[in-house]
């Protein structure tokens, strides 16, 4: 064994992967919205858009390991009242996937988001984020994206890393965000201090992710089992759920597909909001009871 152990491990990982040459139908479905691309200064981003362009912009940011399709139910619902955009964050889905860690700094990502929103041609938006690089790069690109949408502000909805980016974007550019909804991600000055000890997003997992190269191989074990573990609400016995799982696996079916997503966790945990950490924009934090129990008690309670 000895020096050949690594090769044997790599071969077993490739043997466990199914071939995924064509995207599942749900990834290219136009009934949810129109698939569009925008070329910013240094990156091309993919997004799905629905609704009336004359309405306020609601921007959805997904989490990890995810893509635009995580908002497949919210997009058509809110499209009756808003101009809705579900973005593939850089490194995910059909957006550009640079592998360099330096492409994921916070400043750049935020700038790209701002450019994107402006390019949409709106003055403000509602930002919704779900989960999370160098952080400066990420924020710079988010700003560019917002600018590219041609708007001046939005309603921002984020989950997981998408929500974490939303906290920084809202604090740094309050003129861009009319309202902010954070799902499963508390204030960044709190969230990194109360991580679980085991599982995805745990403190031990984030420490492991700092290793170069090895985490990209580890996540591909057992035909990308990490995706099924993360999206436990999806049951393969149901045809629609199985197709969504396959969509996630298709977008993350190559080793290089994981470098960008993992780079977010190689940089973002080291960032906090400095100085006055108060968010002036109206903000809604949505968590489940398990996340609520893991947070500290309010001051003075």
TrEMBL record:
Keywords: Hydrolase. Residues 56-133, 136-197 form the AB hydrolase-1 domain. Pfam families: Abhydrolase_1. It comes from the Eukaryota. This is Alpha/beta hydrolase fold. The keyword Hydrolase applies. One of its GO terms (molecular function) is epoxide hydrolase activity. InterPro entries: AB_hydrolase_1 (IPR000073), AB_hydrolase_fold (IPR029058).
